[in-house]
Amino acid sequence: MRRVFLAVVVFAACAxxxxxxxxxxxxxxxxxxxxxxxxxxxxDTNSTNEASPPDAGTDADASSGIPFExxxxxxxxxxxxxxxxxxxxxxxxxxxxxxxxxAGGAPKIEATPSGAKVMAFDTATGxxxxxxxxxxLQFGSTDDFFVVVRxxxxxxxxxxxxxxxxYLFAKYDPDxxxxxxxxxxxxxxxxxxxxxxxxxxxxxxxxxxxxSLELTYGVLSFGRxxxxxxxxxxxxxxxxxxxxxxxxxxxxxGSPFVVGGYRYLGTQAAAGGYTGKVxxxxxxxxxxxxxxxxxYDAIRNWVATVKPIx
Length: 310
Prior knowledge:
With about 300 residues, the protein is mainly β. It is built from 1 helix and 18 strands. The protein has one helix at about 295-305, and strands at about 70-75, 100-105, 110, 115-120, 130, 145-155, 155-160, 165-170, 180-185, 190-200, 205, 220-225, 230-235, 240-245, 255-260, 265, 265-270, 275-285. Strands 1, 3, 4, 6, 12, 13, 14 and 18 form an 8-stranded antiparallel β-sheet that branches. Strand 3 and strand 4 (about 115-120) form a beta hairpin. The longest helix has 13 residues, at about 295-305. The chain is globular, with a radius of gyration of 18 Å.
């Protein structure tokens, strides 16, 4: 089946090409208006043209009949013209326009030499954001979901024999024990990024991340597909996956999607804030069996190269 990637990573409106697009590349980059501005990405690596996420036209996936663009449920782009509100908070650019509130610390937005902006996180002052709960962000036990981020990671070295997890995002049930999370740890014997479907029980996928992720912006992602039986964690070119994993339901009503921290038993944790800088963050959610591994690869490739690159 010809698979065209619709704003699966971005919830922007799709262009209606109205022409035979058989000769177009798998990922076409429309301009910020959503109108096809040509088949080639901007040549200038410092361009501030705000391209939309991969556009797949209007084709629907045969397994669910849902257009890919409708699966993009959360979209943060710090360098987008409308990505930051006047208060300094991220603005959800997805079709859902989900409410984002500051749960801790203060927003810290930095400019990069390329012209892109980033949101800086640290454990001392945050920030930590809550995204209001919604069906889009409730992951049933067999649902597919995919979180992909362009970021740096600067977790401090842990020398005391333990490890303070630094949470990039977390979606918990109110009991505080069942979650979908991505957390990082930098121990004496190695750095690691863990994508987890439970907290402290082990249905999780851990990958060692390279030192380059501390020096430049790379792609982090965590996803589940194959009707809830495969999870994969990816960090700056390295990946690890598990198959035939237990089905985990993270769909309880009322639990926010937390960026830059986590909640335990409904309480915002004082420690464990994400340490690094985030340029873009996208969340996809779809019926089980919708996403193939190739879809994840295509989304990551787009996130890694879309301009401006910080």
